[in-house]
Design brief:
Layout (H helix, E strand, L loop, with lengths): L28 H39 L2 H7 L5 H6 L8 E15 L5 E12 L5 E12 L10 E15 L5 E15 L7
Parallel strand pairs: 3-5
Antiparallel strand pairs: 1-2, 1-4, 2-3, 4-5
Length: about 200
């Protein structure tokens, strides 16, 4: 006996794991770490390939458009009526169109990257029997700052590429879906008596 302590002779028995009951490999943490890393690499490869393909597609479209002269571009543009275009705008994505109409609304924004002004234009493209224009589409137009601006009630002819359908929020917080055209060239028509 040491002090108030008593020493006893107890035997410590250590129980060792049964070597016959080893966990299967799929229940080990390192296995799931390897699976996770492999899945992560595959996912990253798929994302990278999709971005690469999308960039190549965008570059080929831009190259085609920039290589065309203004006359060639305008002659490649087809005319289309509103009902055909509005029924399935995504069907015509990438197609070039020539459209004449009356400007209903213009939203103007300065482009911070260059000296151009970016316009979002609501254009009515169908002239009815009472000489009123209706059937609205949306245009994206970029104009150098020194060029003539587009104003409401202008009659314009645009040459551009269909971007499919576009949805925006209207005045009463309702969704409005219309065809969207990226305009490459446009003319402001001064003699509206010659139109349709």
């Amino acid at each position: 006996v040491r002090g108030n302590e008593q020493v006893s002779n107890q035997t410590v028995i250590r129980v060792l794991p049964d070597r016959n009951k080893i966990k299967p490999f799929y229940k080990k943490w390192w296995f799931w770490l390897i699976i996770f890393l492999v899945a992560l690499v595959i996912f990253a490869a798929i994302i990278s390939e999709n971005k690469k393909k999308q960039t190549e597609d965008n570059n080929s479209v831009e190259t085609t458009q920039t290589e065309m002269s203004e006359m060639d571009y305008k002659s490649s543009c087809k005319t289309i009526d509103y009902k055909t275009l509005a029924r399935n705008p995504n069907k015509y994505k990438g197609d070039h169109f020539k459209i004449t109409g009356e400007v209903e609304q213009v939203i103007e924004e300065d482009n911070v990257l260059d000296d151009n002004t970016q316009y979002t234009v609501r254009l009515n493209m169908t002239k009815n029997d009472l000489d009123y224009w209706d059937d609205t589409i949306l245009l994206n137009v970029e104009i150098p700052q020194d060029e003539d601006r587009i104003l409401e009630d202008d009659i314009i002819t645009v040459y551009g590429t269909c971007q499919g359908k576009y949805t925006y929020t209207g005045l009463l917080k309702s969704s409005v879906t219309v065809p969207l055209i990226d305009v490459k060239y446009f003319n402001i028509n001064t003699d509206s008596s010659k139109l349709k």
